[in-house]
Structure formats: structure tokens, C-alpha cells
Specification:
single chain; 14 strands; alpha/beta; eight-stranded mixed β-sheet; three-stranded antiparallel β-sheet
């Protein structure tokens, strides 16, 4: 059977009820970002592949690629952060700190299943040219507000710090290969491999226990006081202090009930440089939001700049809400106006009345199908339209 009338894998039509909810959510997010001082930008739907592949931020096989008329390799926009970094380095050099936001469609190859799609809408903000725990906390708080704004109430945000593991590696004197093995085991929650590696390298029981803690983190805020006593390295101690200050600031925002600490949250080794976080809700197996500090990214494009930001997978959040029981209704008109067939006066009066009602903010369908008054009433009943107006020879 031909598939020319079907959408490709990972791509879907958005039905009217979902589309209406999504557009309303986008409007709410735009207002939220604007109220926090973030200016919206739009980046190209296609970029040169180099901005992703030569920085090692994204695997080439995850990109949708094509060539332009000159044979240069392009890719569909993969995320909002890398284009924003390019923008900050090239077009906004003298405007720091820079607060920018975006709500755009992203494209990722083979991102299908469990609610994920190859094409999805992502909303996010980037705070560029600022460092410090208060900036980190502002981004986490805005991420939480964004999820709440679109209707996600059952939200859990896990916060980590890349400096914890980096400090542990330096403190224990682990070589690069061993560090990579342990890091992979932490990401896989593989305590057995960590314990065996620690034994092979002659690490003490306390060091082995600390490394296992990364993989076995219980994701609560009290863990900071426990692990703080295990570190002597400055990088790790600074990371603990950063997390303590973030939690204190989030308490001022009133958001501590949503957050926990996950020391095993490491993120991309080549991307994040400090605080990192992910937000979850039930009925989807992936984070619906995430972000962190990425102070080295803009430097790839020619300018050093501290940066922290987050993105919310709006499409994934809506999928979660629908699975959680959200009932979406089509945005039907509030009224329908019909008129007597063949009567120009009736048609003219119907058009005038419809325009007047629309100016007053009422959504109106002008029936042009020559339905009878009886047929029009039946149509309104079937589509939950509350008001039916019939114009007969210029009179209602």
C-alpha cells in the first residue's frame, strides 16, 4: 500500500482540540517569559551542520540533514540553545546580560516512542552573561513556573552539579579511562561495575562508597550534608555550596516542594559546566524539561560568555497531560447564523450581524451551505453551539 497520504514516522498532524490548547499554552509562555524580561527570538529552521557536529554537542546521526543548492550540508534545527549561542556570539555582542526566549519546532532523527516525536515544539530561555547561584535558581524557578503555566502540577525536578563528579575524580586521582568507566556506570546506575573498578584501582572503601553514592542517589535535599563530609577537593566543595545556595533561593521562590538533589545527574560531558536539572511528571518516561549551566558553549562561536538556561518540551508536556486525563475540547463557535436561501437582503443582514458579533468578541459561523432553519438547529446541537440565529428576508 502506498504511504504517500500518511505522515512520516515521528511526525503527526495536530488535531484541532490539541492545537487550540497548544497555541493557548504558547501564548501563556510568551507572556510569562516577557514578564521576566526575556525577549523572544526566532532562529532559522535550518542551520549549517557544523554548528552542531564540529562542537560535538550533537551526534551527526541524530540530525535531519540535507544540502543546499551549492552542496553545503545543512540540518533541521535540533534545539534552541545552540542557535541562541551562535546568535549571542555574533549579533548581540554588546548587550549583556542577554535574556532571550524562544518557542519553536525542533527536529531530531529517531526520537520516537514513549511520547517522543521527531518533530516537537520546545520553549525555553537563555540567560547569558551572568553567573552565580542566584542566576541558576532564577532559571530553575522559571522552568517550574513554565510547567505550572501549561497545566503540569505533578512535577518533580532533580538538580545535580557536574562539579561533584569532577571533584571526586580529581580527589581520587582517577585516570581518564577509569573516570569514563565510572561515569558510564553512574549513568547506568551500575553499582557493581563501580565497586569492581574501585577495587581494581585500589581505592579505599570510603572512596568506593562515595562513587557508589553517585549511582544510588536517593534524590533528596538532605544528601548534601552527607556527601559534603566526603569531599576535600575544592571543585566538589564549590559544587556543594552552589547547590546549597540554589536550594536557599528556591525556598525564597516557594518552590522547594518541587525539587530534590540527584548527585548522579551528570548530563553531557562536553556541554554542562555546573548546575544541571531535569523535570519529570507521570505518564511519560522522559523529562519534560531540563537545563543547566553551559559556560563554554558560546566560546565555541568566538566569545566567552557564562550561560544558563532551560527548555520545556511543550509537545511532550501536552502528551503527559492528556495521558493524565486532560480533556481537550474542540474550539467550537459560540454562535451560528443562517439566512434564507435566495434572499440577498437576508444574506446582507446575516453578514452584518456576524461581523458585529465578532467585533464584540463572539466567535460566529456564517452558514453558507443554504441549510434550512431546522437543519441549522440540528447542526448546532451536534456541535455544541449555544446560539442559533436565523435571518429571514432581512429579519431575525
Amino acid at each position: 500500500m502506498s504511504n504517500k497520504f500518511y505522515t512520516p514516522d515521528g511526525f503527526n498532524d495536530t488535531l484541532p482540540s490539541v492545537c487550540a490548547f497548544k497555541k493557548d499554552a504558547e501564548s501563556k509562555l510568551r507572556r510569562l517569559f516577557s514578564l521576566h524580561g526575556y525577549e523572544e527570538i526566532e532562529t532559522p529552521g535550518y542551520e549549517y551542520c557544523d554548528i552542531y557536529t564540529k562542537t560535538d554537542f550533537v551526534k551527526e546521526e541524530d540530525l535531519y540533514k540535507l544540502t543546499d543548492s551549492k552542496g553545503r550540508l545543512l540540518c533541521a534545527r535540533y534545539d534552541g540553545t545552540i542557535p541562541a549561542a551562535r546568535y549571542a556570539a555574533t549579533l548581540a555582542k554588546d548587550k549583556l546580560p542577554l535574556r532571550i526566549s524562544y518557542i519553536e519546532n525542533m527536529y531530531r532523527y529517531q526520537q520516537v516512542g514513549g511520547g517522543k516525536q521527531s518533530e516537537f515544539t520546545q520553549a525555553g530561555v537563555e540567560l547569558m552573561g551572568m553567573s552565580g547561584s542566584d542566576s541558576d535558581a532564577e532559571i530553575i524557578a522559571l522552568a517550574i513556573r513554565s510547567a505550572l503555566e501549561v497545566g503540569v502540577e505533578d512535577l518533580q525536578v532533580s538538580i545535580g552539579q557536574t562539579g561533584l563528579f569532577e571533584g571526586a575524580v580529581k580527589q581520587m586521582g582517577l585516570d581518564e579511562e577509569t573516570a569514563l568507566t565510572v561515569r558510564s556506570a553512574i549513568l547506568a546506575k551500575d553499582s557493581v561495575t563501580i565497586e569492581r573498578t574501585a577495587k581494581d584501582k585500589g581505592l579505599s572503601e570510603s572512596d568506593s562508597k562515595l562513587l557508589r553514592m553517585f549511582a544510588e542517589s536517593s534524590a533528596d535535599t538532605d544528601i548534601l550534608s552527607v556527601i559534603k563530609e566526603s569531599f576535600t577537593d575544592k571543585t566538589a566543595l564549590d559544587a556543594v555550596k552552589n547547590l546549597e545556595e540554589i536550594l536557599e533561593a528556591l525556598d525564597d521562590y516557594g518552590f522547594t516542594k518541587y525539587v530534590s538533589i540527584d548527585v548522579g545527574l551528570l548530563g553531557s560531558e562536553d556541554f554542562y559546566t555546573g548546575m544541571i536539572f531535569k523535570g519529570y511528571t507521570y505518564e511519560v518516561g522522559f523529562p519534560i524539561l531540563g537545563g543547566g549551566r553551559y559556560d563554554k558553549v558560546v566560546g565555541v562561536f568566538g566569545r566567552d560568555m557564562e550561560c544558563v538556561g532551560f527548555s520545556l518540551g511543550l509537545s511532550l508536556a501536552i502528551t503527559a497531560l492528556m495521558r493524565q486525563g486532560l480533556k481537550l475540547e474542540s474550539s467550537v463557535a459560540e454562535a451560528v447564523i443562517g439566512y434564507e436561501k435566495g434572499s440577498r437582503d437576508a444574506r446582507s443582514s446575516a453578514i452584518t450581524l456576524a461581523d458585529q458579533m465578532r467585533l464584540g468578541g463572539t466567535s460566529v459561523i456564517l452558514d453558507t451551505s443554504a441549510s434550512s432553519e431546522e437543519e441549522l438547529n440540528r447542526y448546532a446541537d451536534e456541535n455544541d453551539i449555544q446560539t442559533v440565529l436565523w435571518i429571514n428576508g432581512g429579519q431575525e
